[in-house]
């Protein structure tokens, strides 16, 4: 707590009475903070990207970004802007420049800048991305570029992604330099109005940076793809089947909030209520990157509406997410490895679905993967959709094997039972939704069940990024 109070006091601008600040007389007032100099605490290590760890201020990052500097600190402190909590607790993140005295008396002294700190290019290699972009541009100019259409399409896709990232981060860097220039002008002219504008601009840059950094978390090979989501009810009978239908609604509402399009591929209704399983597609950029955070067992605790005794029940349902595979990616599926069954569709749809065998079930014999589709009236369309789902699942299985994360997809699944859940949704005796991987929790469970999942998704992706860093 002492460190936090000390850091806040340094930003208040009134603590320079005990020693001269920046060459001034003791007790003299410094209009822009105790230092009166923009260059008080800049990082001494040159950051080739010009951005460093600007995203230090993100409120979800306290536990994964410790030990990294705050590049906005030279602007933030003289402007009296709030210092992020993790920075207040660790003064080593604010190293003073040698030879410049500090005008505020603090109980925690700022040690020298650690030379062994990891440079920011490890986190975001802007120079490397620019070099790679130039290399791809040279490749596209070669006369034989289109000889291999598959390779050419892959390079063009990579070029588009790189150009988007480079333009975004260079734009942020330009905004930061502009803020610095305005600050210098305000400091020289003693202009409080301009100083306030600089503070507003820094706040906007931080907000943009948070969005850019979160997008950077979605940098996986398939993160930009559409997502195929499967939900299966677990232990709990009718109560669990109703819970699975609640999860289906939750994800459809989340997709609607994000502006994604959804298409239900298959549902298997429960005997009394709810669903036994459902498979649907979420169509939109980064759909898989977001929804991969939802893979696992989801647990519901509530007083069951299906129990005449009004007892509290615990139910489980599993969620699995697969990336939709680009048509240019070849996944070899031999006809002899498939067993295709047709049957009459169930559910709403009129007499047509009951008279024709339009539903399709495909079993991949080598892996035992089974997919089915009955959403379309045409057997041909249902077969095409089922093959797309099978292709996605086989591709993910191949990736898992390559990464040595699991022997096979089906053998890596956890039991849908007590103790294996990733998130709990408690409706009685108290109300709380909590992710057991990140400890992110929300008291408004109704909002979560209505699709407000971004907080959980962000916390998980930021945690995974911290593990990779």
What is the compact description of this entry?
With about 475 residues, this protein is an alpha+beta fold. It has twelve helices and eleven strands. The chain folds into two domains: about 90 residues, Methane Monooxygenase Hydroxylase, Chain G, domain 1; about 240 residues, Alpha-Beta Plaits (2-Layer Sandwich), CATH 3.30.70.1660.
Descriptive overview:
The protein is of the alpha+beta class and 469 residues long. It has two domains: 94 residues, Release factor (Methane Monooxygenase Hydroxylase, Chain G, domain 1, Up-down Bundle), CATH 1.20.58; 245 residues, Alpha-Beta Plaits. Helices cover 38% and strands 16% of the residues. It has twelve helices and eleven strands. It has an eight-stranded mixed sheet, with helices on both faces. α4 crosses α5. The N terminus is likely disordered.
Helix/strand/pairing category = alpha+beta
Helical coverage, percent range: 25-40%
How are the strands of the biggest sheet laid out side by side?
Answer: 2-3-1-5-4-9-10-11
* Tally of discrete structural domains: 2
Unreliable segments (pLDDT under 50, ≥5 consecutive)? 1-69, 83-123, 405-412
Topology overview:
Blueprint: H1 2-12, H2 73-76, H3 85-89, H4 126-140, H5 149-189, H6 192-217, E1 227-233, H7 237-258, E2 261-269, E3 275-283, H8 287-291, E4 296-303, E5 312-323, E6 338-343, H9 351-355, E7 359-364, E8 369-373, H10 379-402, E9 421-426, E10 432-435, E11 441-442, H11 445-449, H12 454-468
Parallel strand pairs: 4-9
Antiparallel strand pairs: 1-3, 1-5, 2-3, 4-5, 6-7, 7-8, 9-10, 10-11
Helix pairs in contact: 4-5, 5-6
């Amino acid at each position: 707590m002492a460190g936090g109070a000390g850091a806040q006091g340094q930003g208040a601008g009134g603590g320079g009475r005990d020693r001269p600040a920046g060459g001034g007389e003791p007790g003299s007032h410094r209009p822009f903070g105790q230092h009166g100099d923009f260059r008080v605490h800049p990082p001494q290590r040159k950051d080739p990207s010009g951005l460093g760890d600007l995203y230090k201020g993100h409120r979800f990052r306290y536990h994964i970004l410790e030990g990294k500097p705050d590049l906005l600190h030279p602007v933030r402190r003289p402007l009296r802007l709030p210092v992020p909590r993790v920075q207040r607790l660790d003064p080593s993140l604010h190293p003073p420049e040698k030879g410049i005295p500090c005008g505020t008396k603090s109980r925690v002294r700022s040690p020298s800048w650690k030379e062994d700190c990891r440079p920011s290019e490890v986190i975001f290699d802007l120079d490397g991305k620019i070099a790679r972009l130039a290399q791809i541009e040279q490749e596209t100019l070669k006369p034989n570029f289109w000889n291999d259409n598959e390779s050419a399409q892959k390079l063009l896709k990579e070029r588009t992604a790189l150009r988007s990232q480079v333009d975004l981060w260079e734009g942020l860097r330009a905004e930061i330099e502009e803020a610095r220039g305005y600050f210098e002008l305000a400091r020289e002219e003693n202009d409080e109005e301009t100083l306030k504008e600089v503070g507003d601009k820094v706040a906007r840059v931080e907000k943009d940076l948070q969005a850019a950094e979160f997008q950077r978390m979605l940098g996986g090979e398939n993160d930009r793809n559409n997502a195929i989501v499967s939900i299966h009810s677990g232990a709990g009978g009718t109560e669990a089947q109703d819970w699975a239908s609640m999860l289906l609604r939750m994800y459809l509402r989340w997709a609607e909030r994000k502006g994604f399009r959804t298409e239900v591929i298959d549902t298997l209704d429960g005997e009394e209520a709810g669903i036994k399983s459902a498979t649907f597609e979420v169509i939109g950029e980064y759909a898989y990157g977001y929804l991969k955070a939802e893979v696992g067992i989801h647990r519901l605790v509530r007083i069951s509406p299906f129990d005449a005794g009004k007892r509290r029940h615990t139910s489980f349902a599993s969620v699995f997410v697969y990336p939709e595979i680009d048509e240019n990616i070849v996944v070899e599926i031999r006809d002899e490895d498939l067993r295709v069954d047709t049957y009459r569709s169930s559910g709403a749809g009129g007499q047509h679905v009951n008279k024709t065998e339009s539903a399709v079930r495909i079993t991949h014999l080598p892996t035992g993967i089974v997919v089915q589709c009955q959403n379309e009236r045409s057997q041909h369309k249902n077969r095409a959709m089922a093959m797309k789902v099978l292709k996605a699942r086989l591709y993910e299985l191949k990736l898992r094997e390559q990464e040595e994360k699991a022997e096979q997809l089906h053998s890596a699944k956890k039991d849908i039972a007590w103790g294996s859940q990733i998130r709990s949704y408690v409706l009685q005796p108290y109300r709380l939704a909590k992710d057991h991987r990140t400890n992110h929790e929300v008291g408004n469970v109704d909002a979560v069940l209505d699709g407000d999942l971004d907080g959980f998704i962000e916390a998980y992706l930021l945690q995974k990024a911290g593990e990779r860093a």
